[in-house]
Amino acid sequence: MKKNKIRRMVCALAAAVLTAAVLTGCGAPKDCEGEGKITTIEKGVLKVGINLNDGSMGYVDESTAKPAGFAPDTAAKVAEKLGLSLEIIDTTEENLLNSLDADLYDCVISTVGITEWNKEHYSATKAYADVSSVQDKLGEKAEYTKLAVFGKKGSCLIPAIQNQALSPLIKDGTLSEISKKYLEKDIIIKK
């Protein structure tokens, strides 16, 4: 009789633990809330990796000594929408994703195209721009022309950027204006 009571208590406890795990989203990143509320950004600063030797996409303005171009202006608007200040970290095109892995910054906004390998190893927003029509301004032909913001795999930052920043900036025309300013053409993918 006592064995049955213990067995029932163990089964009830196991069922309670299993139910709690399902209800709390076991397996989901612990820093996520709802639609990707950011809870991991340190000191209210969004650190963005950008290649500042990338023509109209990103460069250092000689008159101000500050980052300028499509990627830095986009990063500034994304940070603003998220209610964060912005720190741009300059890196080479080859090191954009490698330095993301090394935790040098929170995300990459640059000419990194959406590839199967990138999607497998990183989290990415939906494509927000297609640079195929402005490749002559970029200085080289890219095989993958659809751009996204990349972050670490499983990061809640990427859905937050998509939902709270990119989608509103596309909808209100801000990203289109930035692309026209630097690339003389609207490269933004309409949703």
Automatic annotation (TrEMBL):
Residues 46-184 form the Solute-binding protein family 3/N-terminal domain. InterPro entries: Solute-binding_3/MltF_N. This is Transporter substrate-binding domain-containing protein. Residues 1-20 form the signal peptide. The keyword Signal applies. It comes from the Bacteria. It holds the Pfam family SBP_bac_3. Gene3D superfamilies: Periplasmic binding protein-like II (3.40.190.10). It comes from Blautia celeris. Keywords: Signal. PROSITE patterns: PROKAR_LIPOPROTEIN.
